[in-house]
Design a protein that fits this description.
Structural class: alpha/beta
CATH architecture of the largest domain: 4-Layer Sandwich
Shape: globular
Distance between the termini: 11 Å
Strand order of the largest sheet: 3-2-4-1-10-9-11-14
CATH topology of the largest domain: Glutamine Phosphoribosylpyrophosphate, subunit 1, domain 1
Radius of gyration: 26 Å
CATH class of the largest domain: Alpha Beta
Number of strands: 26
Strand content: 15-25%
Largest sheet: 8 strands, antiparallel
Number of helices: 18
Bound molecules: fructose -6-phosphate
Oligomer: single chain
CATH superfamily of the largest domain: Aminohydrolase, N-terminal nucleophile (Ntn) domain
Amino acid sequence: MCGIVGYIGENDALPILIDGLKRLEYRGYDSSGIAVCDGDKVFSVKAVGKIAELEKKINEKNPLNPPFEGGQKITLLPKEGEGGFNIGIAHTRWATHGAPTEINAHPHHDCTGKIWLVHNGIIENYQQLKNHLLEKGHKFISETDTEVIAHLLEDLYDDNITETLKKVLKLVKGTYGLVAFHNDEPNKILVAKEGSPLVIGLGENETIIASDVSAILRYTKQVIYLDDGEIAEIKGDGIKIYDANDSEVDKKVNEIEWDMTQAEKQGYPHFMLKEIFEQPETIINSMRGRYIVEEGKAKLGGLDNIADKIRDIEKIIIVACGTAKHAGLVGEYMLEEYAGIPTEIEYASEFRYRQPVIDKKTAVLVLSQSGETADTLAALKEAKGKGVLTLGIVNVVGSSIARETDAGVYNHIGPEIAVASTKAFTSQLTILALLTVLLGRQRNMSLVTGKRIIEELQVLPEKIKKILDTNENIKKISEKYFSMKNFAYLGRKYNNPVAQEGALKLKEISYIHAEGFAGGEMKHGPIAMIDENFPSFFISPRDSVYEKNISNMQEIKARNGKIIAIATEGDEKIKETANDVIYIPKSLEMLTPILASIPLQLFAYHVAVLKGLDVDKPRNLAKSVTVE
Ligand code: F6R
């Protein structure tokens, strides 16, 4: 999804902007651009493709010698801004309105070329505003919705860009994370937020603005999170923040917990592989301090202040997208079987538009790694509007979803950089298991059962390490199958969602067609596709549905379908039916998804590498889906 970086400070803006854009690359984009200002003229470059293309074009235009290579400190502009501050804005664009071309790439500017801005989000009434501005003689260059804001600013400009922006934003409908400057007022940069994340990083004699903290971390850990409706006026000597009613607000300065090494590859060829191998540790981090074994209880600090309300919950609706939705599906099975709470799971994109009937004893639980997924955020707001208790399981601290929910639990797994979600999924499952224990023990769950779940959770990291040790075997299996064009993934009960997640992992990074089915559904239609070139993954550990899985495997085998089974260590019988077997250690049935998903992550990874694909940044995808 689109990324924003902005800068005002004593250092050269350009290298900081480029570095920031590179740190946002993982979010997915198709073009990029920068604009820096010296109070006299604006230097702007845009490019289609990777940031490397943008750097190349900057070099071509750069009047200085030696050319810009990225990272090094150079002074691109001969003159510093008024008050000795340099200003710049930068953007990575993921096309929504208009093709990914240089013209449509941000920053955009007004007719005079003095007002520049970058924008994430969608201006819903842009066509209407554009028609009005065209009638008044404004000349538009791009097809974007964003450009309309630059022309509106020009149209209403009254020698104070801050006051003008306040007026403009009253006319605009939609979502925005916005950073803008006016070349005639080069001592300030403006930031505004509505439904799209923006963070202000407070460095020494400099302020860095970004849509994601990873672009800021290298410079400072002190940040201010803007809330919806707020506008910040950042000058070299201070920041003023106004709310939607134009009252100045005092904002808390937060300290970011993550550090740079957490965001780097640490010797792994890809972030995805690093993140898969981090899982023994991330599971520990997700559980740390969150249980009392002897009492068979879970304690989730983020839910403490709503402890009474939790006791009264009679129904839970889990809302999420993609991988987080698959985690929620496992959560539904856990909460119903062990906590006895009726639970539903729903796609956030559906929940937000239908008319869900929710009573006051229902809690809505949203799951989101990024905490910024537009559909999930909108669904959350829909639930809040109905006055029900809203809970979250979120990884990114201070993200919009984390702030909007009544209470919640953080994953504590550090940044997930690869577009394909891996460690967030297993962490979400771990926290859902802890939540099940917490809610179950308030209801009918016995001490013995509570203890049993926690003890099993405690040994999961060691079991995950054992699976990771079989990586070479998984790689060999992927070499055997990577040229196949279709895959089925099958599982029952707790492992039905794992089948869906396994298929999603394969299709998103290897572009191979893969579908996840509930094992029992195969014979109701999909089995018609099976032949010797259509292999099936079976997630069939020794659990309550093991025999049913074996029968389904026989049905596939009878149609010449190849079978790769994920089975429990010591299960020799499965080899009679499956062509290839990947073993996982035995665990409690409700926790097997945490183990069974890991070989599927590795399989998808190896297939994508064998196909020579961009594993961490698959085509057409974005890490954080901040548009509908
Ligand atoms: C798949 C994947 C996506 C996300 C989905 C929700 O690997 O990453 O399906 O799970 O876009 O994202 P979050 O969890 O950030 O709300």
